[in-house]
Design goal:
Strand content of chain A: over 45%
Shape of chain B: globular
Shape of chain A: globular
Strand content of chain B: over 45%
Oligomer: heterodimer
Order of helices and strands of chain A: EEEEEEEEEEE
Number of strands of chain B: 9
C-alpha cells in the first residue's frame, strides 16, 4: 500500500496563477483532510471531508477550494495564488471520524508551494 | 476548542527517558488526547492516543491524571532518531465536525544528543 500520496512535491507559482494539489489514499478511508504548515508552525486545517461527496471548512479556508472526487481522491485548488499561501501542504486521511473513537490520521509527504 | 500548551523545546541524551508534558485545562468530556511526531520534511505520524489513566504501546506511554487537565508523553530510552517535533492534540474523535475541533499547536522540538 502506498498510503497517502500527494502531487506535486514542489511547485513555484506567480501571484494570481491557479493550481490544483492532488491527494489520493489507498486505505479505503472515509475521511480526508488538507492542512497547511508555515515555517516553524504547527499544522492548520484548511478543509476536510468526512465522506465522499461532503466537504467542510476548517480553520483557514479562505483562498482555497476543495473537491472530493471519489472516496480515494481529495484535491485542493488555489484559484488565484497569493504570497501568503506560500507553505507546505499536507493531505491526510482517517477511517471514519463520525464513528471511530480511534482517530489516527495518516499523512502524505507534503507539497512545498512557493508563491512569488 | 481545547487549547494545549507544551514546551517549545527540550534537549536530552541518548538512552535517557524523555517526558513531554502538555497542559489542556479546558478539555471537554468527550475529548481524547493524541500525540503526533513530525520529522523535517515529512508529514506528522501518529504516536499514541488516550482518554484517561495510562496507555502504552511499542513506541511510547501516555499518562493522563484523573482531572485530565494535562498529559505526559513518555519516550523510553531515546535515540538520535527520536529528534523531531512532538504535537499534543486534544479534541473529539467522533461526530461529524470533530476534525475541525482538533488543533495542532506549535509542538515541542525535541533534540537528542549523543
Amino acid at each position: 500500500n502506498a498510503g497517502v500520496t500527494q502531487t506535486p512535491k514542489f511547485q513555484v507559482l506567480k501571484t494570481g496563477q491557479s493550481m490544483t494539489l492532488q491527494c489520493a489514499q489507498d486505505m479505503n478511508h472515509n475521511s480526508m483532510y488538507w492542512y497547511r504548515q508555515d515555517p516553524g508552525m504547527g499544522l492548520r486545517l484548511i478543509y476536510y471531508s468526512a465522506s465522499e461527496g461532503t466537504t467542510d471548512k476548517g480553520e483557514v479556508p479562505n483562498g482555497y477550494n476543495v473537491s472530493r472526487l471519489n472516496k480515494r481522491e481529495f484535491s485542493l485548488r488555489l484559484e488565484s495564488a497569493a504570497p501568503s499561501q506560500t507553505s507546505v501542504y499536507f493531505c491526510a486521511s482517517s477511517e471514519d471520524q463520525r464513528l471511530s473513537s480511534y482517530n489516527e490520521q495518516f499523512f502524505g509527504p507534503g507539497t512545498r508551494l512557493t508563491v512569488l | 476548542l481545547a487549547k494545549t500548551t507544551q514546551p517549545i523545546s527540550m534537549d536530552s541524551y541518548e538512552g535517557q527517558e524523555v517526558n513531554i508534558t502538555c497542559s489542556h485545562n479546558n478539555i471537554a468530556t468527550n475529548d481524547y488526547i493524541t500525540w503526533y511526531q513530525q520529522f523535517p520534511s515529512q508529514g506528522p505520524r501518529f504516536i499514541i492516543q488516550g482518554y484517561k489513566t495510562k496507555v502504552t504501546n511499542e513506541v511510547a506511554s501516555l499518562f493522563i491524571p484523573a482531572d485530565r487537565k494535562s498529559s505526559t508523553l513518555s519516550l523510553p530510552r531515546v535515540s538520535l532518531s527520536d529528534t523531531a517535533v512532538y504535537y499534543c492534540l486534544v479534541g473529539p474523535t467522533t461526530g461529524y465536525s470533530s476534525a475541525s475541533k482538533i488543533i495542532f499547536g506549535s509542538g515541542t522540538r525535541l533534540s537528542i544528543r549523543p
